[in-house]
Amino acid sequence: MAKPPLTLYLAAPRGFCAGVDRAIKIVEMAIGKWGAPVYVRHEIVHNKYVVDGLREKGAVFVEELDECPADRPVIFSAHGVPKAVPAAAEARNMIYVDATCPLVSKVHIEAARHSENGLQMVMIGHAGHPETLGTMGQLPEGEVLLVETVADVAKVAPRDPEKLAFITQTTLSVDDTAGIVAALKARFPAIVGPHKEDICYATTNRQESVKAMAPKCDAILVIGAPNSSNSRRLVEVGRTAGCDYAQLVQRAGDIDWRALDGIGSIGITAGASAPEVLVNEVIDAFEERYDLTVERVETAIENVEFKVPRVLREPA
Ligand code: 0CH
Ligand code: SF4
User: Fold this and answer.
1) Which residue among 137, 170, 244, 297 is least packed, with the fewest CB closer than 10 Å?
2) How many domains does the chain have?
3) Ligand 1: which of 24, 54, 100, 131 to mutate, judged by most atoms within 8 Å of the beta carbon?
4) CA angle 91, 96, 98 (to 5 degrees)
């Protein structure tokens, strides 16, 4: 029987960002240098395939530092950690490597600078997300107030409304965040912040390309994990931009083929922590069932690369 025709729109950029690539390489290098096991505090990036692959090579994933033995190296995930974590590792004389993305570290530095200038901070982010915990944990409790929505802005109770700054998680929805920033500026005209927000280039670009393809897609699949903030935002952006059926799938096996019955076009993208091998797996699954025409929807060209430390150093 002839396969039905299907146009597959492939978003570009998609998948791994520079921070994820660097974090994974750091774990691989650490295993190469120190042998197994190397401990990793939190999933190095939010992707089961990546984590399982590193586990096979000798990484042991834990949630908290006190689950690590003091005589094995530990790596901090790309999302960043509260200041107390490296301090505790030092107190235990542990070897540690910080795989926090440089763009997350940049927000940490920004927070410290605002605090030195006597400003209290409002962080726009998701409660409980490791990046939010890490960024808020750069400063003593009470110095960073969290807002998740426009409605939360009304509840912010700063020490001094004239001495406020805002910072954001790097993986938020660009449009939702713009709304929250506007509400903050309306309520606290003196608030200072970055030029726009701290959302990173990779998050912004992946959302742009989903926005561009959504109006012509009968369905969109975002390859990514349920705990991946940036991947989940891509699903929301797809829906908001006009594609009613946008779903997160971790792998081809998660695709609900029945729900896709009768479609003429599909959009495919991948979160910043999802490897390209999984994108190919999904495309192959469509190829088996449809007569595919693949069209790239390219809205930006990325050439960002972050240096991986050449030598992983032991603390002095
Ligand atoms: O999108 P989140 O932050 O949940 O993390 P991820 O899926 O592991 O992607 C990498 C981003 C890491 C920190 O910005
Ligand atoms: Fe860094 Fe952005 Fe990637 Fe996060 S999503 S690891 S901030 S480049």
Assistant:
1) 244
2) 3
3) 131
4) 120
